[in-house]
């Protein structure tokens, strides 16, 4: 049996939901079925960052079929599309989706829409994000054609979210935020039931950077470490002491965490090598501390390397800052969800240590991200993102479309 639900199942009872007639733009059954098929097609044909040509073409074709005029971004993947005509005065609301996949194999069993591309999978839910924004765009386009969309909305389908520092920067340079005053997004959350969203004011993700350290020394025989640079010991000390040292030089409340994922050195048990490499990530919950993190890490690595007479080269790859939700716009998403699904469909969520390049948009305009529940209600298995067996309850697509359409309509009245 498919892990993804064939039918829309609401976590919120009918008595708890707001009347559907309160807001226009309900999702018709025919469109719901089309969107599920669209998501499955994307899932079967995942594309890595800046290679999303098929995905871009599919989005462009469907938006043009709806009478819209999407504009492909300068790199050839990703696009933006306005619904309605901006008056040049009141800034637009933007709905953002990321369209790339991950370089991991799809290990799901028992579904006919698993990835057809070796070692590629939509294991982070970007296919759902993309489908949700497309569905909202199609609904809002119909409202605009009937003169029922009070204010224009921009759709942003962004490439390369998984590629540091993120495709958001390229999208911004291509004009994605021109005329935009606020922006919203969702991210799939397998810990939240379908039919619900998670929200919080302030930071909802962390900053995420990448660190690569190379150590060098003359090498020699393990019988005479005192005559050379004991590079393996130096690398071990960097691995152990740099995270501790950095942790003592920043406010503990900032949540700065340096974690190594790789360490390599040497080939023989009796030879002190001439080269060692370490790589890992630096994550930080606090925006101000993140801005200082690179200098702190550089200083700590250099101190330990010098102590063991190792030459060091540090490549600190700045990734993304934390996503910091604007309280007013987070409340807009909460009100929109409550209007469609009832107040109990919105739950509090914690700040995570995951990174998200949606944060780059929030460096320019206020916005908010919600966690879109994708766990089948009642399921006990806890799945996680970036795993080959990741899948969703597809009723989440309907929920996401309802959330974004209601947000666009409520925003226009504020």
Report on this model:
It is a single chain. The protein is α/β, with parallel strands linked by helices and 414 residues long. The chain has two domains: 276 residues, Zn peptidases (Aminopeptidase); 114 residues, Alpha-Beta Plaits (2-Layer Sandwich), CATH 3.30.70. It has nine helices and 16 strands. The strands form four sheets. The protein has an eight-stranded mixed beta sheet. Strands 10-12-8-13 form a four-stranded antiparallel beta sheet, with helices on one face. α3 links the parallel β3 and β4. The longest helix has 21 residues. The protein is elongated. It starts with 28 loop residues before the first helix and ends with a helix. The N terminus is likely disordered.
Number of domains: 2
CATH topology of the largest domain: Aminopeptidase
Unreliable segments (pLDDT under 50, ≥5 consecutive)?
1-21
Count of individual beta strands: 16
Largest sheet: 8 strands, mixed
